[in-house]
Amino acid sequence: MWSLKKEKGVPIYVSIIELILYYIKNGDLLPGERLPSERKLANYFQVNRSTVVHALDELVSLGWIIRKQGSGTIVNEGKWGISTTPRTDWRRYLEQNAFAKVDPFTEQIERLIKQSDEHVLDLYTGELPMDLIPSFSFPPLTWKHFLEEEQQDDLGYLPLRQSISRETKKEYGFSLPPESLLITSGAQQALFLILQVLLQSGDSVAIEDPSFLYALPIFQAAGIRLYGVKMDQDGINLESLEKMIRQHRVKMVMVNPSFQNPTGKTMSMKRRKALVELCQNYQIPILEDDVFAKLNFVSTDQIPPLKKLDPENVLYIGSLSKILGSTTKIGWLSAPTSVNQQLAEARKMMDFSLSIFPQLLANLALTDKDFSNKIAHLKQTVEQRGKAVFDVLDETNEWDVSMPKGGFYIWAKWTHGNLRPKDWAVFLQEGLLIAPSFFFSENQDSIRINFTRVDGKNLLIFKEKLLEVTKKIAFDSKSL
User: PROSITE patterns in the record, alphabetically (predicted)?
Assistant: First the structure.
């Protein structure tokens, strides 16, 4: 039992604290149970007694254990005064650079966006431009109306959950029961809750490579290890994934199978079925991010979500923010009822309350008689913009590019290999703001473009800027 795993860079006393906390939380050490003496623990761990004393002192200060005269050290029998985690070792965090600085390239992009310079074309931001966000007319609402709304519970506003359930049925031909839906303030809150409740620090998660998840700091903050799995035209490579599962004991697979961010790829039906089967065999849950579901350009070739193929094993994240604007902050998670109840309870304990205002407004939009027509018009416009951007990229013969079947993004791969820092700087100099591939992977050879932000007015500007950037970096590549 008293076997200590010493991790490089982690102080030994911290490892001892974490081990004892693990035993207490798992029931290996029961309330009132006596711990071995300090000398015995030092022998077990092969460390100095002073190191053990340091660790036990911390646990006493946190309230997890109690020192009693004549009785030794025992596990606290109550909950009063107990802290859930050890005090932060700030020196350790700073030494490991846990508070990583913002990437210089990101800083420069954000500075250029804030300047609102007419010279700058922002195809970096991952949102719809204001001119594309559908407009809805809402009935007059009074403050009293919000106060009297009583259909909000821990899972979220019931009429909104019912509307989402109906929309899913209409879109995909299968139902997400309202009781299986947890309304969140955006897709990222759903992801955060999953990391906090269903995973533990040190767990391994497999994601697509490249993936927007690579860029999110919440994984590192939660102590989750990410492992990227390369993709082909059909989606995530299953041979590589299975190898990853065996090698790293993967606890969850997270994918964005439809109009993937950043590549825009859509996983084939055959690959989806095989992925579901693989994860069933290893009893590993799948987290499916489907935030672009409403932006499918090919309505006659609708590939069902993974959730439809395996309702019990797939956690499903959806969102309205991609079609109603990021300030809407409405997302949802579909999971087994028992899981959602745990997630809802955790959110309540974290005091991440969900306002009724955006939920009520989102429900009014979903139930608007013109909702379907407005979304159809949005899809048509977005597809037209995507085709225009694709044509410009394709005509250069310097970028390897495919037209996506939906979503926001086109992924363009530089045909001459990796781009160097001086090449990325050219994009900034020309005022063409894109998301570089190193945001989403270790690769340095591609760019992500949000084509929804290229309208008829700035299409020519985009073409001129892209051609200038391409000419400059191509010249540098050939002069090497």
Answer: HTH_GNTR (PS50949)
